[in-house]
Design brief:
Blueprint lengths: L1 E11 L6 E12 L3 H11 L3 E6 L6 E7 L2 H14 L6 H16 L6 H12 L8
Antiparallel strand pairs: 1-2, 2-4, 3-4
Helix pairs in contact: 2-3, 3-4
């Protein structure tokens, strides 16, 4: 099992006109691959690691999660730009970077920027056609 996910969380706030936008990078591995995740955490110097047991197959999985914007923008994105992804995740990464740039320029605070982010999010991960 190897799951690499570039995720964008869009949540409406109590203020009807604003949204909370959060970038999340996640890697999930079976428990026996904990040393790999420890190396990733050490190299990137950010994020958290959490053990989970999923019901059904009772597989023990370790999640590596990063959601701090500064860590994502200054450590994770440069890492993947340096070491290119060569699969369908490369498209998700490109979208993830586009949203990160919008956020870095404070465009996520405007109605137009939020709409653009929602549109980008809608085509990522399981929704991606090609």
């Amino acid at each position: 099992m190897e799951i690499v996910l570039f995720f964008i969380n869009v949540a409406k706030t109590n203020n009807k006109l604003s949204y909370n936008i959060k970038l999340i990078f996640r890697i999930a591995q079976y428990n026996q691959d904990i040393n790999l995740l420890k190396l990733i955490i050490k190299y990137l110097d950010c994020s958290t690691m959490q053990r989970k047991a999923y019901s059904g197959n009772q597989a023990h999985v370790i999640d590596y999660n990063a959601s701090n914007f500064n860590d994502i923008y200054t450590k994770i994105i440069p890492f993947f730009k340096k070491f290119n992804l060569e699969n369908i995740k490369a498209k998700d990464f490109k979208d993830f970077c586009e949203v990160a740039d919008l956020m870095n320029n404070s465009n996520h605070l405007t109605p137009e920027g939020i709409l653009k982010i929602i549109t980008i999010k809608a085509r990522m991960n399981n929704n991606r056609k090609n």
